[in-house]
Amino acid sequence: MSISLVSSQYASFLVAVLFLLCSPIIKSSFADDQRAIYLVLMEGEPVAFRQSNATPFEEGKTLDPNSLASKAHAKRLVESHDLLLQSTLKIGTYNKIYSYKHIVNGFAIHTTSSQAKILESARGVKLVEKDRGAKLMTTYSPQYLGLPAGVWSQEGGYRNAGEGIVIGVIDTGINPMHPSFAYDPTNPFMSNLSRFSGACETGPRFDVSACNGKIVSARYFSAGAQAVTPLNSSIDFLSPFDAVGHGSHVASTAAGNSMVPVIMNGFFYGFASGMAPRARIAVYKAIFPSVGTVADVVSAIDQAIIDGVDILTLSVGPDEPPEDTITFFTVFDIFMLFARRAGVFVVQAAGNKGPSPSTVVSFSPWAVGVAACSTDRSFPGTLILGDGQRIPGVGLSGPTMGNGLLQYKLVLAKDAVKENGIFPKTPEYVEECQYPEALDPTAVQGSIVICNFSAGFANGTSTVTTIIDTARALGFAGFILVANPTYGEFIAEPIPFSVPGIMVPRLADAKIISDYYEQQIYRDQSGIGRRYSGKAAIGDGRLAHFQGQAPIVSRFSSRGPDMIDSNRNPVDVLKPDILAPGHLVWAAWSPISIFDQILTGQNYALLSGTSMATPHVSGIAALIKQFNPLWTPSMIASSISTTASKFDNRGEPIMAEGAEIDSLYPSTPFDIGAGLINPTRALDPGLVFESGFEDYINFLCSLPNVDPQTVKAMTGKLCNNSFAYPSDLNVPSITISSLHGSRFMKRTVKSVATKTETYLCSVLQPPGIAVNVTPSWFTVNPQGMQDLYIKLDVNEIKDDFSFGEIVLTGSLDNIVRVPLAILPASVS
After folding, report:
1. Which stretches make up the Peptidase S8/S53 domain (predicted)?
2. Would residue 246 show up in a list of annotated catalytic residues for this protein?
3. Is 11 among the domain residues?
4. Which of 608, 611, 691, 722 is catalytic?
5. Full-model pTM
């Protein structure tokens, strides 16, 4: 994201908080002999999917992990891991951290590179992957998405929305004292969750009472973190408690209680609610303030499946495509594949490296990748100059005394620097308001001080938090952070200021302020300001405005096309999958706020990022699962996709933010996937496209330059029914990264309606390609299936992808949309 304002710490949360996952190694070279964590996948069925005549595996379900047979099998797997290590590696050269045995057979060890190299060639070892570390990546959202009058009303109102569904949140933990996670004895849960078997692990700031029925399970995973670095007991709490805030924010967005008042710095912003306020939350803390490892993250995934979650929320993802292997064959993606095989709906952040193309970090078709957009709510700030000019800006703060009617002396920080002060004459001291000792108290006390966005902000050493501290120490009436021509405009998000303040990120507006100021100041012959006549006031920036074009794809949201490798070669999978609100999202926070001093002591935060968009989809998936309990994950994913909207609140195609401030362009499926999620329509999509585990195996087998033995090694399955092309996977989209001449393909739809319906097929043709669908119309009974045969013909070569859409319009008002993203490479 092209952001370089505010504190460098807070900026990481404004763009959302993604984990930097490791690059996989299949035949790797080890350059040194340093100790590190290595993830190892083994041959042999894990507990959840073991095959026997007595207990054949059923798609979408796992075997009971608590049965005697399962426990015996788990014990054998652990023993086999230990035996392999003992017989292969030197004693004292390794430390086993985890045995993975439920959805994947493998383990994690802390060892040297040379020992890991030996392990690669050991019998039964499928993959050795170095763990390079893991690191961190609503008051209005329910209304914007139409939940109160839509899905919630169909499920008995907010007091029942999500009842009986468990959402697993793998993140930084949870703040159990937050009202978003409180248990309401006047509205007891109706479901006993007999199928769920989580546990409540206790520790610092987290006792057994924290698992109160709303929070049904809470665990933490620290073995990997503890192996690589000494943890700081003052912040790295060995408990599910969230010292960061991010995990609490994600959990409350997905399933926080409804009608929770949001109060910050004494101001009431409205009532917050999660998407599925009656869903239960299972917490899996796998990231600590000091460190995070992939070993801990995938162990959390494994445990979540054992416990029996319905939905898995991963505001996590690889920060870059993996080196030396296919994106779908990382340990992280393999764990997600087997979670999906177990019948769990997996939602993953698409990433925050937009707006450049091929930056998505959600690669696999078995996980739903979520892009981020704005809503029509904004928090505009206003600076009122003494001559009546009103300058727009950003800042979640109260007004100067007098509510904008009283005017205060306007002082440029440069003009208020002590003439004989002993301090470095660097921008941080001279113009960025970072050091109170550099400013003359008599000049700035009771004044509105203009601070410049200069070198310190550009390199991340200066922060808005420090401006606030300076303002408090010297008694500013308020402050202005203005754009600097030397460093250009900056991107500003509303930040809660505890003193009156405003950010003015546009150069044109900064010039108006500068021109007015210079007209009102008297300078002596040396250019030093001696008399300040300029006046200004800061208006209230906390009042929400509901107007303007929305949604708009957020600048930071990662874009497609999807990639098959680190060389960014495209692959025939549409990513992102769906668009959801991820800009300016109010949700729960942790008052400790280790990474963000500006939010210390606060119970709420207004954040932006695909990490914020992801739990919107998780919560909505919980509502769909509640309404349609027998639906598989692919059916839920299909319903979300085919019912999404490509249009904004003006009826125009959704726009996307470009690299420059205020730049917009018409979005494509590589920006929005299928479009903005529509929860009400997703409950009853009419038709769905289904894909199961065997289909994903066939997809992997059809990838270019993939050895079937690699697929067998990674998944345990043979390539018996490989697709002709990866694009043949039965998903509700068609992506072809290089179409030569003609191609035939098939899609199969299943009716989930309660009545027989007739559908008419039409096509919005992609430029350069003729698309024909047969049959042109069909009638399908409830639970009936219909094959659609699609012929694609290139009639004009293009240098880039062309976009279109297949639309199936039903006689009972169901509309099924299938996006097309195709690059016509040659006519024949």
Report:
1. 162-648
2. yes
3. no
4. 611
5. 0.91
